[in-house]
Amino acid sequence: MAATPTTLYPRWYKRPFESPRQTLYHAYNLDSSLTSFSADDIPPVIDMRVLQPHDLPTHALVVLDGSQRSHEPIVVPIHFAAFNATFQNVDNLRVLSQAPQPPTKHRYGTPYNDPAKGGWTVTLPTLVIEAPHPPSLPLLLLYALWDTLPNQPPAELTPPPSPDSFKSSKTLPMPTTPPPTPATVASFGSQSSIASPRAPSPPPEPARPLVCPAQLAAHLLPAAVLGEFPGYPAQAAALARVCDDAALRAHCAFNGGLWRNVLLLAPRAHAIQDIASNAWNIASAAYKGRAEFRADPARARRREQLPQRTHPTAPTAPAAPADTVAGEPGGPAPTTAASTSDGREAPPATPDASAPAAVQEGE
Fold it and tell me: Of 148, 174, 199, which closes a domain?
């Protein structure tokens, strides 16, 4: 998969959002979910607190862990039309078997004031999805659905402007010709001419958040690793250098889980696919390199001297380990393949014996 620095990784390596799930709520003018439940007792409808009574979502998506039924469900708002246009594998969503009954005097998706619930509330029908890695799914939804969000919140960490974009008025060249005079338009009623001023300038574009899909990489890899792009071996070496064993396992668990979520939903944006696959490849290579160095340092040094490719090949889905802990699903990885940027399908999930044990990674 070929990729360019401008489409894959950002120039500014700060995370624009610290809580992707809360940012997704605010993007749909919501604050939080008001309904508490367990994975074994999912309600047909979910109430959510409203911040603004417009541009609200159509459904509440309940994210379940495919292997750990005791895992606490994650609830995120979605607009089904935007979700269907963004992802190819929407068949993974399912509706509860029992038909939901609409609340009295209220319609789905219509906000209403309920003092008992603390103000404006909206009731949304429930959709359920079993994800390989629920903690990383809100992050995937936020960046994949970004262009369709009705209320794009500003980034929490705004990149500073480039010094090259500012020039002092003293350094600007002086114009060599006088400015043009206002155009004249002949009057049909007399022989005189009436000066017509120029058309007013259009209003400036509204300030848009400095967020792009490429900034997804800032949530997956440290800044020191992103700075080595596009050197794939250098990125893997940098990740192994800046992370201890626990942090490296956390990167492998989270990036591998995100890649399996990409295979599950198959986002249409190739940039999302490329970033997720590269992040998993880099984390996996760093983990394997550290394990090989500890097992045989001399062989690992000889291997480093061999010619290396500058970009990883199409990745496979990380296999879930048999003995997992909270936050990482078990069982086989999904076999649904996502199309890569060159039109080919990514290979199905295959076991990887060198994949590290999973640890939970928060948002």
Answer: 148
